[in-house]
Design a protein that fits this description.
Enolase-like, domain 1, alpha/beta, FAD/NAD(P)-binding domain, 7-stranded mixed beta sheet, 5-stranded parallel beta sheet, NAD
């Protein structure tokens, strides 16, 4: 038996590494187990988000957005010609950003006194954690508390088995180093839309196959409708109700994608195919039979609102438990659990977790949709304000989209905020803060927003809730 720890965290993704750092900051003897190693055998920290998810995808999205802006800079009076993209350099920049950030976590572990244990972690009974190193050797550690933060993996589908260089998951999609002429994407969710956007900006013919009949079914219908219009304008061919039925590799260079929709059987031929149909919890091999921790039929770990499992002292956070698979949700759960272990009161407000799709314009929302609230029988009042009426948005040539605020008709409390806009990912934080403090629409109406700023659209949308918007004509109440 090796050292005993106050806390052992299994997984060093955005939930796990944050939990480990917080626990160590609170004076707890903490270790973090991570199985991921690079081609040189060094431990890779940061999980999916930092390595093959949130961060690298945003790097590619930013590079291609800058390229798009350079191509259309004449609207600002900036005349350019023959703008080209060095895709290999773009990918190399993405890799450098990832390396810097993951290396930074190792430095934070050292600075905070977190012990890194390299290997595959498995929870046994009595909070014993077995760690199997890359060379097959094992060691067992005891802990007063264990935090399971094993993350998630992409869902694979039988009709489109991954094929190196041709049929790719989200990790493979991030390493495409030449602009494909034709790209197919299965799944019109966050990953599918973001990766499709990256290559559409570079001139790729992008076809997105979405099995569901509704586009972005979980978002507010106004957001989904606006997004569908804008993506069509950007030459993203999104086919709804299109279910992939099979794939065929042609001469080792192309992929024939077979699908069926309301009109019958169809097929397209693409140079690359990205499978982006969602993710599932990575809990295989995580729990020994005597661990006492329960999984549901989909592989998620059962937890309560404070992320406690049925075993005292064992917690689970992030993508392996209920709730949205979001890095920031995982991180905040990690902080909450570390605080609870240290004896502090902590609670996460699951009603106020922002969601973002980093296309351009961006889609962002927090709280409930108008459709959800009406289905619950809540009487609401709605205010919308278009960025086309914002002076700062006009100056930036970013007038697409709007801000929508939904408030309770009886209490005036803000219940949901939904946006489509160039910097919606930054603006949504203002909405989350307001909702966290139980803001009413009137509270935002009485708040002084700086002029000229894009965030004035939030102010105007709040005013519009009661028909008092200043810089647009208000709808007449019936």
């Amino acid at each position: 038996m090796s050292d005993k720890f106050d806390v052992i965290v299994i997984g060093a993704g955005p939930g796990g590494y944050v939990a480990a750092i917080r626990a160590a900051q609170l004076g707890l003897k903490t270790a973090c187990v991570e199985k991921w190693v690079d081609d040189k055998g060094a431990t890779v920290l940061g999980g999916t988000c930092l390595n093959v998810g949130c961060i690298p995808s945003k790097a590619l999205l930013e590079s291609t957005h800058q390229f798009h802006n350079a191509q259309h800079a004449d609207v600002h009076g900036i005349m350019t010609s023959d703008v080209t993209m060095d895709v290999k350099k773009m990918v190399a920049r993405k890799d450098t950003i990832v390396k810097n950030l993951t290396g930074g976590i190792a430095g934070l572990f050292k600075a905070n006194g977190v012990t890194l244990l390299q290997g595959m972690g498995k929870l046994h009974g009595n909070k014993q954690v077995e760690v199997t190193a890359a060379d097959g050797s094992t060691a067992t550690y005891a802990a007063e508390n264990v935090i399971l933060a094993s993350g998630s993996v992409p869902v694979e589908i039988p009709p489109a088995p991954l094929t190196e260089g041709l049929i790719l998951d989200n990790e493979g999609a991030l390493n495409i180093d030449e602009t494909p002429k034709r790209l197919g994407v299965i799944g019109a969710g966050v990953i599918g839309l973001e990766m499709g956007s990256v290559w559409a900006r570079l001139g790729t013919e992008v076809t997105v196959l979405e099995a569901m009949d509704d586009f972005l079914a979980l978002t507010d219908k106004d957001v989904a409708k606006e997004a569908a219009k804008l993506f069509k304008k950007q030459n993203l061919d999104i086919k709804l109700g299109a279910r992939c039925t099979g794939t065929e590799i042609i001469d080792g260079k192309e992929v024939k994608v077979k699908f069926t929709d309301a009109e019958g059987d169809k097929e397209i031929i693409v140079d690359k195919l990205i499978v982006a149909v969602g993710r599932k919890p990575q809990t295989k091999g995580l729990l020994a039979d005597d661990s006492g921790v329960s999984l549901d039929e989909r592989g998620f770990i059962f937890v309560n609102e404070q992320c406690a499992t049925g075993v005292p002292g064992v917690y689970a956070i992030g993508d392996s438990v209920r709730g949205p698979m979001l890095a920031h949700k995982a991180s905040e759960e990690g902080i909450m659990v570390a605080d609870i272990i240290a004896g502090h009161h902590a609670q996460l407000n699951y009603d106020v977790i922002p969601n973002i799709i980093y296309t351009h314009p961006e889609l962002a929302w927090v709280g409930k949709t108008e459709q959800e609230l009406k289905a619950e029988g809540v009487k609401v009042k709605v205010g919308k304000f278009p960025f086309a009426a914002s002076g700062r948005a006009m100056a930036a040539n970013e007038t697409e989209g709007f801000v929508k605020i939904i408030a309770c008709e009886e209490t005036d409390r803000i219940l949901g905020v939904h946006m489509v806009g160039a910097i919606a990912s930054e603006l949504i934080g203002q909405a989350a803060i307001a909702m966290e403090f139980c803001s009413s629409a009137e509270d935002l109406q009485l708040t002084v927003f700086a002029h000229p700023t894009v965030s004035e659209a939030i102010h105007e949308a709040a005013l519009a809730v009661d028909g008092h918007a200043i810089h647009m004509a208000n709808r007449k109440k019936r």
